[in-house]
């Protein structure tokens, strides 16, 4: 068995694990990052694409934002569409210049992997049989197999950044966790298409046929979503049917509609809200999707992960610099305050813009009234803009 020793053992090489490793490196703190998937799989996994202002600022300040600033698409507003009309929310005006940036999670991961490799610190892909142990002691252990050889990492702390289906949260005794969950009665059918975006900002649409979202990944690639059934059979959605449904739900009375192009990817995304409390057990700390999931309507998943690991990095620096563990003790409560606000916002956006199968005519009229209020009240628009561009990480 190969024995390793590090300060922080990080399980998971998604945005949370990679960003945590980078922030710790900047402070001279050693870590080993393990990931059960291949490097190519992690990079090509198409997930979130909207970065809050605070996430952009964090990446720039930590030295991994050069390509983000060059290639990311800064948006100072979004559109809410209903009744065949688009209504723009000027987020920058409402929040003293804050905005969002469209920059795919795969691009974030690429930048963070490149930065990690440049440091020379360990980053191990395609590890098998991962297990965490002894995190209730002063020397937690991560065990795994890599290239056919068993490994054991002894560390001071473990950061569980291995996602919703990872082993870290599952290794905590169920009696030590409180789980809060809501599964929504609909899902998203998402596509990537080789089509130039026909609008320079995102369009969220409420339609009698269901929700739709116009987004983008680059000046030549459009990202679009349709509300569908949770158990939707993707094989029933031929390209022509997808475009016809997108046209029906997104087209507006001024003649706007999404551009069409070759569909290069299709997928179904389930909708759930999930929180595990607390985000710590002994010397095992959870971050990102390992601790919480939000419906994608509010674009909060990756951004919450960035906020988590920023807080965790600051707390670990305090531990090693001054021997003070107050911030480690406060980590879970501090993160959860922001997480629950993001859950509230994501639930609100989701319920405002989706047609629930249980909804009646009253519910539908209420949704229209709410959208009419939100797009007509500066106070309501300010609340949306503050949450969408991101609440403070502090």
Describe this structure in words.
The chain has 394 residues and is an alpha/beta fold. The chain folds into 2 domains: 2-74 and 101-180 and 274-349, FAD/NAD(P)-binding domain (3-Layer(bba) Sandwich); 182-271 and 354-389, D-Amino Acid Oxidase, subunit A, domain 2 (D-Amino Acid Oxidase, Chain A, domain 2, 2-Layer Sandwich). The chain has 12 helices and 21 strands. It has an 8-stranded mixed beta sheet. Strands 9-3-2-13-20-19 form a 6-stranded mixed beta sheet. It has a 4-stranded mixed beta sheet with strand order 1-12-11-10, with no helix packed on it. The longest helix has 28 residues, at 326-353. The two termini are 42 Å apart. The mean pLDDT is 96.
Key words describing this protein structure:
394 residues; 29% strand; 21 strands; D-Amino Acid Oxidase, Chain A, domain 2; FAD/NAD(P)-binding domain; six-stranded mixed sheet; 12 helices; alpha/beta; eight-stranded mixed sheet; globular
Sequence-ordered SSE layout with sheet pairings:
Blueprint: E1 2-5, E2 8-11, H1 15-26, E3 31-34, H2 39-44, E4 50-51, H3 53-61, H4 66-71, E5 73-75, E6 77-82, E7 85-90, H5 91-94, E8 100-102, H6 105-119, E9 123-124, E10 127-133, E11 141-146, E12 149-154, E13 157-160, H7 167-170, E14 178-194, E15 203-205, E16 212-218, E17 221-228, H8 239-250, E18 262-277, E19 280-281, E20 284-286, E21 292-293, H9 301-322, H10 326-353, H11 361-374, H12 378-389
Parallel strand pairs: 1-12, 2-3, 2-13, 3-9, 6-15, 13-20
Antiparallel strand pairs: 4-8, 5-8, 6-7, 10-11, 11-12, 14-17, 14-18, 15-16, 16-17, 18-21, 19-20
Helix pairs in contact: 1-6, 1-9, 9-10
